[in-house]
Amino acid sequence: MAVYTDITEDDLIRFLAAYDVGALTSYKGIAEGVENSNFLLHTTKGSYILTLYEKRVNAEDLPFFLGLMHHLAERGLSCPLPLPRADGKLLGTLSGRPAAVITFLEGMWLRKPEAQHCREVGRALASMHIAGEGFPLKRANALSVAGWRPLWQNSEARADEVQSGLKDEIAAELAYLEDHWPKGLPEGVIHADLFPDNVFFLGDRLSGLIDFYFACNDFLAYDLAVCLNSWCFEKDGSYNITKGMALLSGYESVRRLTADEVAALPLLARGSALRFFLTRLYDWLMTPAGALVVKKDPLEYLTKIRFHRAIVSSAEYGLRREEASA
Ligand SMILES: Nc1ncnc2c1ncn2[C@@H]1O[C@H](COP(=O)(O)OP(=O)(O)OP(=O)(O)O)[C@@H](O)[C@H]1O
Ligand SMILES: N[C@@H](CCO)C(=O)O
């Protein structure tokens, strides 16, 4: 359960006095997520999410994340909105953490997504890329290729505790990606963490996207690679090409990939798999015993790195186009 910072009822009531949300009737910690502390609030006016921003969120980046949610919502994308305080600010402080109250998005995330859901996610991702155009703030991707080596250096010495041989394999993978990382692909605002637990559905209809706290400016196709990794593999580690085809064709029904993006997809997928491997490995090794969070398995992403390493052409992902075999 991701509640790193606890709150008291008295502090919460004082904090909520700055918002137009009515009186608090109940609240509870949310047993999901690994990054921030989240609470579900019920008040006399409705339901809200309270988020306390934790370790990986730099307070200076919060105006980017919160402003982006407004920008996307104004352009018709379904996502939660941070509520303004009486002083007009979107952020306050609670239990010593930056904190925001966010509108509650109806829906559930899918534990077992199918191909039709992958198609919906592809469409929503491309729509987000288009809706993000014109957003004036910028934020570099701290977890792209330049950020991987410092992350790796924190866990490298203990990597073989998780699996023998890991230290050498990841060192070689990282060096390869640093040397071959693509340049000059189309860029824009990306979500960067659009896993199934960040996409809500009502029945089979996608109802919205949440958790914009890794959003940044980077290659648009990198975002698609994150989704290929998080939506199109089965629990046994196998790639599901039907889901891959659905995701890619859903994306391309809204925004067509350029030939360069198609050619770069295997590398981007490798890089994205390494990024999640590295943050998971770090958390696996460094999260103190007893923390109220379910740690995620880094080895799931080692399997994906190996899969992408063997890919020769994006056609193998199910991208049915001439350029895919270029
Ligand atoms: N706006 C919202 N409306 C409804 N539920 C929400 C909303 N925001 C968060 N939640 C609930 O809180 C859970 C955790 O939220 P979120 O994914 O933002 O946390 P996180 O710690 O940043 O997670 P992650 O591990 O995905 O980075 C979600 O799975 C969902 O159940
Ligand atoms: N979506 C990430 C957690 C948030 O960074 C993962 O599954 O590793």
Automatic annotation (TrEMBL):
| Main enzyme class | transferase
Domain Aminoglycoside phosphotransferase stretches = 27-255
Q: Name one GO molecular function term.
A: homoserine kinase activity
Tell me any Pfam family this protein matches.
Answer: APH
Q: Can you state which reaction this protein catalyses?
A: L-homoserine + ATP = O-phospho-L-homoserine + ADP + H(+)
User: Which pathway is it part of?
Assistant: Amino-acid biosynthesis; L-threonine biosynthesis; L-threonine from L-aspartate: step 4/5
What EC number(s) are associated with this protein in UniProt? Answer: 2.7.1.39
The record's keywords, sorted A to Z, are: Amino-acid biosynthesis, ATP-binding, Kinase, Nucleotide-binding, Threonine biosynthesis, Transferase
The record's comment on protein family reads: Belongs to the pseudomonas-type ThrB family.
Q: Matching PANTHER family, A to Z?
A: AMINOGLYCOSIDE PHOSPHOTRANSFERASE DOMAIN-CONTAINING PROTEIN, AMINOGLYCOSIDE PHOSPHOTRANSFERASE DOMAIN-CONTAINING PROTEIN-RELATED
Name used for this protein in its record? Homoserine kinase
* Origin species: Sinorhizobium numidicum
